[in-house]
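Our collaborator T.R. sent over the components below with a one-line note: 'Predict the complex.' Nothing else. No constraints on interfaces, no templates requested, no preferences about which chain binds where. So this is a plain run: every listed entity goes in together, and whatever single assembly comes back becomes the starting point for the next discussion.
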Amino acid sequence: MSTLRGAVAIVGAADTVVGKVPQMGPTELWIDAALGALADAGIDKNEIDGLVTCDSMAEPYMYHAEAMAEYLQIFPDYCMGIGAGGGTAFAILHHAASAIATGMCKTVLISMADSLRTGLTRAQAQVMQSSTGHKQFEQPYGLPVPAYYALIARAHMDAYGTTAEQMAAVAVSCRAHATLNPAAQMRDPITVADVLESRPIADPLNLLDCSLVSDGGAAIVLTAAERADDFPHPPVYLLGAGEGHGHEHISQARSLTTSAAVESGRAAFAMAGLGPADIDVAGLYDCFTPVVLIELEDLGFCAKGEGGAFVEGGNITLGGALPVNTHGGLLSHCHPGNPGSMFHLTEVVSQLRGAAGARQVPDARFGLVHAQGGIMSSHCTLVLGTER
Amino acid sequence: MLKNLPVPTPLTAPYWEGCRAGELRIQYCQVCERHQFYPRSVCAECLGSVDWVAASGKGEVVSYTVVRLAVSEAYAEEVPYVVALIRLAEGPQLMSQVDCEIEQIATGRSVEVYFDVWSDEVTIPKFRLVS
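Returned assembly:
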């Protein structure tokens, strides 16, 4: 076994309702997502022999994956909880694919959910904000999470002449997509001026440069490619996967403007035997607007330093060269913490099934999803396709 | 509500003792002839031993932000404040606050350390612009 290319396929996918969901806690959202994905795959819970989760912040468990298996009374051969921040969903999928390819299990359920909007106590919310960064050498200086990313944004502006208007264009594009998605948390169109005039948070980032705070969950079912034709929906194959890990703390980053997405993207494309020009639709982690510019550059969709111009030219909006975050992204669809990137994945699965409705990218054959966790710390890229 | 107070460990105690004594202490590897920050039990390059040395306290702003929404109530009175990544003259990069007029902060500005006494136990290094 030398490659995961074409070894596994996504055969089930589902989202919960998102946004403000006080009637369900993180566990109930997790179960709702999981059952949704099982129903979408048309299988019984007893067919799941692999289970992967990430812990909830609002309702943490000592061993989250064990707790969820117990809750549903399933008894998998492979069961683990993974935490890699925003990059968790794709890192999970990368490892679950390996588990299937090496025979540890046959069918894996990956479900993630959290309730950051209505489920956190005030104390939990403040601890979450304050616990980002190095305890002794960063946290004392009082940075809210957006301020860490503002350091990256400023460095990109200084190095490449990127403008606040170009970063704002990312938020405008995501919102334009969300207007077509009835499930999205924020659906009123916005303009670049709206972003620039929104409340300043940490210069150069304003409120609308920052992602949402949400409740919600999503899940997928992954199985061996040989079995993938036996399910109700067309399979979406994993063609490439790669990871890159550059630092934990932003003050220790090798570069503020070039990320380990270079490594993760290169590995994923190499495995897939594809390049950026082959990708029809992408889901790029968009916790803050400048992150998308750096991902576009580091993954090779445009040259280094040209992310701003690429976005400003309309390339990432439906109808453009590379529609990005057609569901609305973390900026406009929802952002429930670690599960956030799961929705980029379920959206790209919908696109590759040809089931994205008003948001459908015509003839989408190849999709890419990329997420990063920490402060541009841990990166994972997946390339997906409609054929092996 | 308290600020995010650093809690020294046996490894980092020399750094925080240095702050109380008005000296920015970082580590130096004699084999690699290289300084490092934050403090580690070994040189991150050769994995050999490191010594504590006094840094010049001078550096340059690599990037910065003006925080307008405080991370918690403990910081609310200080808004807006400038947080920067600073490249020390000795090489390592660290995070700190720069005490200056908001309009004056810029990438590439030269800065120099000073020490902000928070309590008998805690003194925090911060920076000021130098011309």
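Summary for T.R.: The two ends of chain B are 37 Å apart (CA to CA).
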